[in-house]
Known about the structure:
Layout: H1 3-18, E1 25-30, E2 34-35, E3 40-48, E4 57-58, E5 64-67, E6 73-74, E7 77-81, E8 86-91, E9 96-113, E10 116-122, E11 136-153, E12 168-171, E13 179-180, E14 184-191, E15 194-195, E16 200-205, H2 208-211, E17 217-220, E18 226-230, E19 235-244, E20 250-263
Parallel strand pairs: 2-11, 11-20, 13-20
Antiparallel strand pairs: 1-3, 3-4, 3-8, 5-6, 5-9, 7-8, 9-10, 9-11, 12-14, 14-15, 14-18, 16-17, 16-19, 19-20
Amino acid sequence: MSARMLRTALLLALAAVSGAASAHRPWLLPSTTLADEEPYVTVDAAVSEHLFDFDHVPLKLDGLAIVGPDGKPRTPENVLTGRLRTTFDLKVAEPGTYRISLFNDSAIVSYKVGGEMKRWRGPLADAARQVPAGAQDAKTMHLQTRIETFVSAQKAGGQPFPLQGSGLELEPLTNPTDLHSGDAVRWRFLIDGKPAVNLPVSLVPGGVRFRGTLGELRYSTDAQGELKIALPTPGMYLLSASFGDPQSAQARRASYAATIEILPQ
Length: 265
């Protein structure tokens, strides 16, 4: 892993826990979440400091999974990675809702040898073998990052999306497309398949650099892991949450982020 890629991974790990206003955020941005006429949508994937701006690095598509309204996988088309973003097209010919998801399950190992800090990132199963004998201050951070967006063609609906039961997940009790300002929605967050109780949830609108402020809306799930809110003003938003203990030597940090589009009434 290059120094720049590792630095980005560490920034994302920090963002997942701190929710800092200046943190670099990964996201998937569809050209629309409700395709009425054209049978294609284009999706941008990037990591940026300003939400939905191309100002840092492209988001890798390792672990990309697209599920159609029939519950079957779909394949992206015209995949292209540039210096600041990755982009691809998705055919949405069948009516219903499609889930576009990136899931990364890995570990970052840090330790000192002779006073020099070393870092490694890779599969969790290989983490223990990366620390040499005599190393000091060894720490392992288990990272589970899930980044999603949803697109409906002609109408919302279809087969319920399968849940993995690992990491932080969203069970969309209210379909996450065809959303309108003022609508009441119900979404359930799960951690390892169980309700994520009292989980802090953030909703940030795009256009941060034009406002000069983050404009973050903060919520919390209830005893069933459900988030029940009335949707704010129209626009593209990033819905995000994180779970974990960053202070533990065997820390796990699970994060979730989904791009949603809120339309006018």
